[in-house]
Design goal:
Structural class of chain A: alpha/beta
Helix content of chain B: 25-40%
Distance between the termini of chain A: 39 Å
Number of strands of chain A: 12
Distance between the termini of chain B: 63 Å
CATH architecture of one domain in chain B: 3-Layer(aba) Sandwich
Order of helices and strands of chain B: HEEEHEEHEHHHHEHEHEEHHHEEH
Number of strands of chain B: 12
Oligomer: heterodimer
Number of helices of chain B: 13
Number of helices of chain A: 11
Largest interface: A-B, 50 and 48 residues
Largest sheet of chain B: 8 strands, mixed
Strand order of the largest sheet of chain A: 6-7-8-3-9-10-12-11
Radius of gyration of chain B: 22 Å
Strand order of the largest sheet of chain B: 6-7-8-3-9-10-12-11
Strand content of chain A: 15-25%
Shape of chain A: globular
CATH class of one domain in chain B: Alpha Beta
Order of helices and strands of chain A: EEEHEEHEHHHHHEHEHEEHHEE
Structural class of chain B: alpha/beta
Largest sheet of chain A: 8 strands, mixed
CATH topology of one domain in chain B: Rossmann fold
């Protein structure tokens, strides 16, 4: 299972929800690895399977969900863990920050106490020790007047500060992997960039592995070393951040980039939109999930799911239209 | 297509004031929300959601409104739409005061419609698509048959096949399609002004572009005027002729879209633009342009509302509120630095 630097190794992950007779396949054969100190962004629209993939790493699905494939984190099989092992693993090896920190905190306990409790539970120290660690963390995530803020209830904090507190909680037990599920989507623009920079800084200083789920390409570019583009429960393209942005190979990735109302879009002109709607996971087409919307669709696309085509070091796209020899020309596009 | 043209002919709401009259003029608009908080609700707190806002929307243009949560952009839209009553201020539509004898609320609402962010919550779950779209015209006196036929025409226009969609319920269709239906409903009364309040924000990126294109097409086709509210600066830049930047219930800056985006004159606008992700993996943003969250509109800072986060702040900013100053080319900024006569020390140094 890879070299010792590999923190996360996901192979052929499938996640099904709903009744066995008519399952909804939310994740369909995802391979994903994460090295120490690396940030991978999972980029996709609603229903693309990005959050479900992320939650599988902490086994946060309801009991009715059926998971297939293997998930190894820090050399351990996550899918085989007992309840007790899982409780020790969550927060200690892998922890997570969510889109809405208002929902992730318990509203009736002081934020500082919630962090102290997590430290006490995992490190076996006293509550006072836990408080000390909480204060340290609040300083670390740069919450102003941290001592006073420890005694706040979640509702007494602004959105940006709550997200900082959430990050402090997530880092309380010195995890190796941080999972971030759209952590800046609910924040204002001027606050979003602050939180992105904070995550980047902490990632670098603590040597964390980060998996960052987002629907916003701009956000992915700000934080990620590698980007995995998801569509219909599968990773359709993966590569270094610069490669995916500058030499997108999959028609879906290209469509996402050209349909952006960015700098280059001329006033009064029309955007190059991707036609159609995202797929219904209960009724995925037999072939490539993007085929019904693809401008380059061919007969074969409708029958078979395309396998990953390696294009460059670490860059692949799952599309019959790309081949290793004819790597796509650089997309000439002024990028905002 | 012939049938479509017949039922969609322009109605009697002709251009009264002429081209030079703004379609919408808003003057000194104020809305405060009061609530009692604290122990036994004895403390009276006032949210100054909109606190003295003036703007015009010219005929045929798109005015973009940007700002962060709590800046009052949605409240402004709701006030214009008369969904909530302003505490103070005047709203003129094509030169007539809204609610006056010359322009009653019914007439005004026929000419101004709104599309909301949540495409699902803003549709009645028990009405089919055609009933939803034809509801307004029927209320305003159009016979059922004509209203249904207009609904079918509109479905065509927004890119949905009437034979497939007319009989469906909101839960049976996707988010992008639902937002198209909201737009069709907004157009059913043949309005002149359409207020789009975060109308594409909940859509997936690949669908967002389709809806933006549709809005541009419809604007050309029906000669509409838009107020386009969004927190997404890229989208606002693409859609708008002029842009108004709001901060804590006030207008910080307003002017032609390209000027706002290329030569902003208010430090807040500058910070907002600098906060946009760079989209360049080799030149990522290194430093956040401003720190902290926007202050609470319950107790907005005195003086310039932005002074608590502004890097050019001086004593002047903390007590004197800068009015919107004309910086030339229809571009106005509410900053002492934009006004050479304000006495801001940085101006003397320059």
């Amino acid at each position: 299972m890879g070299d010792s630097d590999t923190l996360v190794d996901v192979r052929q992950l499938t996640v099904d929800f709903g009744p066995a007779r008519k399952p909804v396949r939310a994740v369909d054969g995802v391979d994903l690895s994460l090295k120490k100190g690396e940030t991978v962004a999972l980029l996709g629209e609603s229903g693309s399977g990005k959050s479900v993939t992320l939650r599988t790493l902490l086994r946060l699905h309801p009991k009715s969900a059926r998971t297939g494939g293997t998930v190894a984190v820090d050399g351990r099989d996550v899918l085989a863990m007992s309840a007790a092992e899982l409780a020790a693993y969550r927060g200690r090896t892998v922890s997570m920050i969510f889109q809405d920190p208002g929902l992730a905190f318990d509203p009736v306990y002081r934020v500082g106490d919630q962090i102290a409790e997590a430290v006490k539970r995992h490190d076996g120290v006293s509550l006072a020790e836990g408080r000390k660690r909480a204060l340290e963390l609040f300083e670390r995530v740069r919450i102003p007047s941290p001592e006073r803020r420890l005694d706040n209830y979640p509702h007494e904090m602004s959105g940006g500060m709550r997200q900082r507190a959430m990050i402090a909680l997530a880092l309380a037990c010195r995890p190796k992997v941080l999972l971030a599920d759209e952590p800046t989507t609910a924040l204002d623009a001027t606050v979003q960039i602050q939180v992105l920079l904070l995550i980047r800084e902490l990632q670098r200083e603590l040597g964390l592995g980060v998996i960052f789920v987002t629907h916003d390409i701009g956000v992915a570019v700000e934080v990620a070393d590698r980007i995995a583009v998801m569509y219909g429960g599968r990773i359709v393209e993966m590569g270094s951040c610069a490669t995916v942005i500058r030499k997108p190979a999959h028609p879906y990735t290209r469509g996402l980039l050209t349909s952006r109302a960015g700098h280059a879009a001329q006033k009064g002109s029309r955007l190059v939109a991707i036609p159609g709607a995202p797929p219904d996971l209960a009724n995925l087409p037999p072939g490539c999930a993007f085929a019904p919307r693809c401008p380059e669709v061919a007969d074969g696309c409708l029958q078979t799911v395309p396998a990953p085509v390696p294009l460059d070091t670490g860059h692949f796209a799952c599309c019959f239209r790309v081949s290793a020899s004819s790597a796509p020309k650089e997309l000439r596009r002024a990028i905002a | 297509m012939n049938v479509i043209v017949d039922t969609m002919k322009p109605v009697g709401d002709v251009d009264r004031g002429g081209e030079a009259t703004a379609l919408l003029s808003v003057r000194s608009l104020v809305k405060h929300f009061g609530s009692n908080s604290g122990l036994l609700a004895r403390t009276r707190t006032v949210v100054r959601a909109v606190d003295g806002v003036d703007f015009d929307v010219m005929k045929g243009e798109t005015l973009g409104i940007v700002g962060e949560s709590g800046c009052g952009k949605s409240t402004t839209a709701r006030l214009v739409m008369q969904i909530i009553k302003p505490d103070q201020g005047e709203i003129l539509f094509d030169g007539e005061a809204v609610g006056s004898s010359a322009l009653g609320l019914n007439d005004f609402r026929k000419q101004t419609q709104m599309v909301f962010q949540d495409s699902y919550a803003s549709l009645n779950p028990r009405l089919t698509v055609e009933d939803t779209i034809s509801f307004g015209p029927r209320v305003h006196g159009l016979p059922r048959k004509a209203a249904i036929s207009r609904a079918h025409d509109l479905l065509h226009r927004v890119g949905l096949e009437p034979s497939r969609f007319a009989g469906r319920y909101p839960h049976e269709i996707s988010g992008g399609q639902r937002q198209r239906i909201n737009i069709a409903r907004g157009l059913a009364l043949e309005p002149r002004l359409l207020i789009l309040d975060e109308a594409v924000s909940a859509l997936d990126k690949s669908v967002e572009a389709q809806v933006l294109n549709l809005l541009l097409d419809l604007k050309d086709e029906f000669g509409l005027t838009y107020i386009f509210i969004s927190h997404d600066l890229n989208v606002v830049r693409f859609m708008s002729d002029r842009v108004m930047v709001m901060y804590l219930g006030k207008v910080a800056e307003v002017g032609p879209s390209e000027q706002i985006f290329t030569t902003p004159r208010h430090p807040y606008t500058e910070a907002l633009l600098a906060s946009m992700p760079s989209m360049d993996p080799d030149n990522r943003t290194q430093e956040a342009p401003i720190s902290g969250d926007p202050p609470n509109p319950i107790n907005p800072p005195p003086g310039c509302r932005f002074h608590t986060r502004c890097r050019f702040v001086t004593a002047l900013c903390a007590h004197a509120e800068p009015p919107l100053h004309d910086v030339g080319g229809e571009h106005f900024a509410a900053c002492h630095l934009a006004n050479p006569a304000s006495g801001h020390p940085r101006l003397a140094a320059a």
